[in-house]
Amino acid sequence: MTYARAERAALSDLLAGLGPDAPTLCEGWTTFDLAAHLVLRERRTDAAGGIMLSSLAGYAARVQESLKAKHGYAGLVELLRSGPAGIYRLPGLDRLVNTAEYFIHHEDVRRAQRVWEPRELPADFDETLWKQTRAGTRVFLRKSPVRVVLHRIGGGVAIGGPKDTPQAEVTGTAGELILFCFGRQSHARVDVTGDDEVVAKLMDASLGT
């Protein structure tokens, strides 16, 4: 089983256990909203563009609500559990685009609960997440107001953010770094160093969106 499918299965189990009203790290979203978002992303290509494009966000939101009404929470979780749909069934695409997606959203649910601890990921999973972090650093950190140097525990450095600006250093495992780069700064177990004002700006920035 790929890590993309393992994270999908683990997230599905967690969603089923928590029910539709549990919090997530996605601002304003419950577990019901997150389940609908993930089903929309894979099964409603007509609306999926609204995830990234503000001009289509209203339509995507309406479709997301319609999916909730049509399938209910349990139905959405089972659709999610059933595996990748649409273009995500293409060989290799699920692993390429869903490994980080499902890891991040799995942690969005885990870390929004009252008690949680970081997981110790297998070495090859950590390496996979680091490769995706390193490859996407410039994109993930394009909205950062400061230069960011990522230091992966175990080896590896990646740099993003605007040149010729004050610099912050962020150190952690690959899983924590990718969470940080996707806007979960306050929930990522990382060490952030630099001038206090620079660090504050980075921690408040909208990253990865």
Automatic annotation (TrEMBL):
SUPFAM superfamilies: DinB/YfiT-like putative metalloenzymes
Gene Ontology molecular functions: metal ion binding
Residues annotated as signal peptide: none
Positions of transmembrane segments: none
Record Pfam families: MDMPI_C, MDMPI_N
Domain Mycothiol-dependent maleylpyruvate isomerase metal-binding, chain residue ranges per copy: 5-48
Annotated MDMPI C-terminal domain residues: 125-200
Name of this chain's protein: TIGR03085 family protein
Origin organism lineage: Bacteria, Bacillati, Actinomycetota, Actinomycetes, Streptosporangiales
